[in-house]
Amino acid sequence: MNQSRKLMTLDEFTIQELRNFPQATGELSGLLRSIGLACKRINAEVNRAGLVDILGALGTENVQGEEVQKLDDFANKALIDLLNHSIYCAGVGSEENDDIVVFDDPISNNSKYVLLMDPLDGSGNIDVNVSIGTIFSIFKRISPLGQPVTLDDFLQPGHRMVAAGYVIYGSSTMLVYATRRGVNGFTLDPSVGEFCLSHPNMKCPPHGRFYSANYGNFGKYSPGVQAYLKRCETKTTAEGGPYTERYIGSMVADIHRNLIKGGIFMYPGTTDRPQGKLRLLYECNPLAFIVHLAGGIATNGSIPILDIKPVTLHQRMPLFIGSCGMMDELMQCIRAEG
Ligand code: AHG
Q1: 260-316, pLDDT tens digit by residue?
Q2: Mind spelling out the 3-state secondary structure of 19-40?
Q3: Cα torsion angle, 298, 137, 118, 282, sign
Q4: Which CATH superfamily hosts domain 10-199?
Q5: At the top level of CATH, which class does the domain 210-336 belong to?
Q6: Is this structure's pTM higher than 0.90?
Q7: All residues at 6 or more sequence positions from 167 whose CB lies less than 8 Å from its CB, including other chains
Q8: Which are the contacts of 310, defined by CB distance < 8 A and separation ≥ 6?
Q9: Of 63, 130, 242, 321, whose CB has the highest number of CB atoms within 10 Å?
Q10: Cβ distance 330 to 220 under 8 Å?
Q11: Among 121, 167, 246, 320, residue to substitute to test ligand 1 (most atoms within 8 Å of Cβ)
C-alpha cells in the first residue's frame, strides 16, 4: 500500500467542490457535514450495540405500526438534534415521525433546504449484527424564505432532489453521496474519525450477476416479476455466467453491493400489499437518485421513481432498481407478462 497517498476527507472534498461554484453559499456543504457528524455518532452506537443496553425494541410503535428499535430512536434523535442546532436545514421529514419536524427559529426559517430521512434502515437486522444504514435526501424548499417550512416542501417529486446519500454501517462504515455532479463514496477511517474519499465517481455497471428479491413473497408477485425471477434462475448473465441471488433484507446493503458490482434489487407490490413495503420519500427516492446518477435505473414497474409526485409523507411504493441492462430485461418481462 502506498502510505504517502493523501486521502481527501469529506470536508476537504466539499470545500474543493465549493471552489467550482463561487456563487455557492456553503449551506449544502454545511448540511452534509452535519449529517456526516450525526452518522459518526450513530456509527459509534451501532458499533457498541452488543455492549450496552441499546439493542432491541423500545416498546413503542412508529407511524407505520412497526416496533421502534432503540437504535432507531437514537439515530432519529441524533440527526434531528444535530440538524436543529445547525444553521443549514429548515426542517426534517423522518420515517420515525408522524409529521414533519419544523425548525421554527429565525435562522432555520431562512435555510434553503429540507431533509427527508430513514434514520436507520434495516433495523429488523440490528439484533443479529447485519449491516444497516441511514438514508437521506435533500430538497430546496418551495415555500418563501423567512417562514417556517410546510408539508409541500417535503412532497416534491424526486427529480427536484438536490442531493441524496446513505451511510452503510457494515464491515466498514461508508457514506455514499450523490449530487448532479456525480456519486462519491467516503469510507470512515476510525483512526482519525473522518470520512475519506475511497470510491470517487461511482458508476453502476450496466450488467451484473446479482438479483435481490424476497423469495418468500414469490407466489404473491405479478406474472411479469415471477417471469423475470425465473429468467434469472435459468438464463446466463451478459458475461455468460449464472445469476446469483443475494438478499440481505437491508436494502442499503443490497443496493450498495449491486451499485458497485452490478445487479438488480426489487421490492415489488404483492397481492396483499400492492404498494409493497418501502417508503417513497425515505427509501425509494434517495436510492433512485443515487443509482440514477451512477448510470442505473429505478422504477415502480411502470414509471421512473423520480417522476412520482408524492401524495403523503409515509406512502409506500414498489421499487425495481439497479443496472440498466438488467432493468431493461426486467421491464421486458413486465411488459410481456403484466
Ligand atoms: P426495516 O427498516 O423495517 O427493517 O425494513 C427494511 C426494509 C429494507 O431495507 C429491506 O430491503 C426490506 O425492508 C426487507 O423487507 P422483507 O423482510 O419484507 O423482505
Answers
A1: 999 999 999 999 999 999 999 999 999 999 999 999 999 999 999 999 999 999 999
A2: HCCCCCCCHHHHHHHHHHHHHH
A3: negative
A4: Fructose-1,6-Bisphosphatase, subunit A, domain 1 (3.30.540.10)
A5: alpha beta
A6: yes
A7: 39, 42, 43, 133, 134, 173, 174, 175, 176
A8: 154, 155, 156, 157, 280, 281
A9: 321
A10: no
A11: 121
Nine-digit cell at 276? 409493497
Phi, psi values for residue 51, rounded to 5°: -95, -30
Q: How far is residue 172's CA from residue 184's CA, in Å, rounded to a whole number? A: 16
The residue whose CA has the least distance to atom 14 of ligand 1 is 249
What are the residue ranges spanned by the domains of the chain? 10-199, 210-336
Which amino acid is present at 256? H
Query: Which atom of ligand 1 sits closest to the CA of residue 254?
Result: 11
Cβ proximity of 154 and 272 under 8 Å: no
Rounded Cα–Cα distance for residues 312 and 214 (Å): 26
In one-letter notation, the amino acid at residue 278 is L
Regions of the chain short of the pLDDT cut 70: 1-5, 50-56, 58, 60, 62, 66-69
State the closest ligand 1 atom to the C-alpha of 120, by its place in the atom list counted from 1: 2
